Amino acid sequence: MSFQFNWHSFTEANFYSKARALLTEALNNGSMPPIIVDKVSVSDFDLGSTPPHLEILEIGDFSADSFHGIFKLNYAGDARLSLQTKIEANPLQVHYQSVPEFAGPRFLAASSSLTMPLILTLSEFRLNGIVVFVYSRAKGLTIVFPNDVLESIKVSSTFDFIPSIARYLQAEIENRLRLFFRDDFPIIMHKIS
What we know:
Distance between the termini: 25 Å
Pfam family, one: Mdm34_N
Structural class: alpha+beta
Keywords: Lipid transport, Lipid-binding, Membrane, Mitochondrion, Mitochondrion outer membrane, Transmembrane, Transmembrane beta strand, Transport
Organism: Tortispora caseinolytica NRRL Y-17796
GO molecular function: lipid binding
Protein name: SMP-LTD domain-containing protein
């Protein structure tokens, strides 16, 4: 059994501005790698025109005040997310930040900082897995992914012309997205609800 989303209700400007703010906050929580020298901001966020497909696997509680359900999620849509920040492009500068001054030579010209803007666009999301929805009128919405739902994603950046960096960014972002769906997404959805 499955059901239809009213997907166009997610196109309200208020929803997107609040979601961008919460995503920006979540992306800047915790420590950043030394290569990222500025905060990460969400510059574009759009859920796209294609809704996910949810298949009902189990309904545990269904009343006017609460709901508990387990679903199979499948998404292959046109959502996109663009992020921007600044990175340290000089690897010696990043290295010198983690090494005490007495531990190695210092090359004056080579140790100068070189910050560059980085724009990342995530698109062509492919999600497939189990999702648990728990809704309580008093406590709000909780969404949990008990397994890894990310099948694939397309990562585009300002460094796509350098294949080794493009491969690194693809792998790193896939890993971070897996953590995001497991840890941060449930918190964001709870705050929005």
